[in-house]
Amino acid sequence: MADNYLEKRFEEFRQPEKKVVRKGGPSLDSLLLRNRSTRGFSHGRAVSEEELRRIVEVNTKIASSKNQQALRFKLICDPEGAARINAAVKMGALFRARRAADPSAPQQDCPDLPLPGTEPQAFIVIYGTHTEDASLDIDLGISLQSMSLKAVEMGLNCLMIRAFNREAMLSFPGTEGLYPLAVLAVGKSVERIFLVPRAEGSQDYYRQDGIHYVPKLPLEKILV
């Protein structure tokens, strides 16, 4: 039995090493391209609290200025909470400004967002343990981008919102002594959004025939 065992072991050594093939996830470039600011969400795709928890969990792995870890997060995905937040946030600031400057602008090209029936139904409200400063602003930017990329990886989309009623965000339990910084709307996009080369003198996003366009500068224009 001993000789047979050794023969088998030698045979194993003579076999070429098996290569382990690992399936890679989406590339960073593909996630970035899909990570578009979304202002219209499907009500047929609910976002669960567990999914929001997975998105927020990225904050346990990312950089933090001075490692202060001063951000806190409130998960909202119940109908009552979502309605309260929708009433307290504003979307599409450029469209609002355009309508104010030109009341005759076509409604379809300068819509009042979100369109009825496409309101976000899940949110992550981001708070600070202290008032804003330069370091906290950097942490907030890193957090919002990281959470948005995680959401895209999960097949969802986000909108970073900074125009909102601060007092309304402090009406949720557990937010006492915190400072509202931003709101991240989360859901499945129903919008068509495309990046386009930026024309001279214009960087504003715009809509045509219901399609949302976002002008971006090419690499050659941002290198100095």
What does this structure look like?
This protein has 224 residues and is of the alpha+beta class. The protein folds into 2 domains: 155 residues, 3-Layer(aba) Sandwich (NADH Oxidase); 33 residues, no CATH class. Helix content is 33%, strand content 18%. Strands 1-2-4-3 form a 4-stranded antiparallel beta sheet. A 3-stranded mixed beta sheet has the order 5-7-6, with no helix packed on it. A hairpin with a 2-residue loop joins β6 and β7. It is globular, with a radius of gyration of 23 Å.
CATH architecture of the largest domain: 3-Layer(aba) Sandwich
Q: Give the SSE string.
A: HHHEHHEHEHEEEEH
The low-pLDDT segments are: none
Strand segment tally: 7
CA-based gyration radius? 23 Å
Number of domains: 2
Structural class: alpha+beta
Distance between the terminal alpha carbons, to the nearest Å? 73 Å
Classify the fold: give the CATH topology of the largest domain. Answer: NADH Oxidase
% residues in beta strands? 15-25%
Q: CATH homologous superfamily of the largest domain?
A: NADH Oxidase
- Amount of helix: 25-40%
Total of DSSP H or I helical runs spanning 4+ residues: 8
Shape label: globular
| Largest beta sheet: strand ordering | 1-2-4-3
Q: Any idea of the CATH class of the largest domain?
A: Alpha Beta
- Overall mean pLDDT stands at 91
Describe the biggest sheet?
Answer: 4 strands, antiparallel
